[in-house]
Design goal:
heterodimer; A: about 120 residues; mainly beta; 7-stranded mixed beta sheet; 4-stranded antiparallel beta sheet; B: about 120 residues; 6-stranded mixed beta sheet; 5-stranded antiparallel beta sheet
Chain lengths: ~120, ~120
């Protein structure tokens, strides 16, 4: 296991199209996070899972966004009817969480989305 | 409200010089604090992780300090190199009860090292 991997690395799509990103976390990690990052800004929280349960969704996650982690392993983030404002880097991270302790979170390289 | 604030927002230094980045937090109850380095267009990479009982931790030319009483952390970079040009993000983990999966991000400090 070489770390968190995200696919694709880059995606260019036309406005109005749907896109789906995939994240494969470190295998023993039970938590998986999605963040969005625009140029020059820090990562903004979107949602996170503990195993297969989606425990929290940010208000940034409009109804056009949906995330799943069906078997508690990989996760997908889908954006429907993309808008130009969705253009950003989408980062995935994973960590282990137990009895109130979060171990170190590892990040993937991100998926850069450009909506034209 | 759990918050992490970093300063300065951006910093330009000459190659070979030292610099110190600051991180203040109001996250409670505190679990740990991490510094990440993020190169442009890439995901953040961990530099250090510090728990409540640790005051100082080094990773090569990077030295992080933590004062849990004042809820402040610093990242000191010694003898800077051009490859240190990146954004440095402070992330504080709440022990429980927090939002965002208990990981609270600062907005980062953008460091530019010039020759």
């Amino acid at each position: 296991d070489t770390g968190v991997s995200q696919d694709p690395r880059h995606k260019i799509t036309k406005r109005g199209q749907n896109v789906t990103f995939r994240c494969d976390p470190i295998s023993e990690h039970n938590r998986l996070y999605w963040y969005r990052q625009t140029l020059g800004q820090g990562p903004e929280f979107l949602t996170y899972f503990q195993n297969e349960a989606q425990l929290e969704k940010s208000r940034l996650l409009s109804d056009r966004f949906s995330a799943e982690r069906p078997k508690g392993s990989f996760s997908t983030l889908e954006i429907q009817r993309t808008e130009q404002g969705d253009s950003a880097m989408y980062l995935c991270a994973s960590s282990s969480h137990y009895t109130g302790v979060n171990t170190e979170a590892f990040f993937g390289q991100g998926t850069r989305l450009t909506v034209v | 409200k759990n918050q992490v604030e970093q300063s300065p927002q951006s910093l330009i230094i000459l190659e070979g010089k030292n610099c110190t980045l600051q991180c203040n937090y109001t996250v409670s109850p505190f679990s740990n604090l991490r510094w990440y380095k993020q190169d442009t267009g890439r995901g953040p990479v961990s530099l250090t992780i510090m728990t409540f009982s640790e005051n100082t931790k080094s990773n090569g030319r990077y030295t992080a300090t933590l004062d849990a009483d004042t809820k402040q952390s610093s990242l000191h970079i010694t003898a800077s190199q051009l490859s240190d040009s990146a954004s440095y993000i402070c992330v504080v983990s709440a022990r429980y009860g927090g939002s965002q999966g208990n990981l609270i991000f600062g907005k980062g400090t953008k460091l530019s090292v010039k020759p």
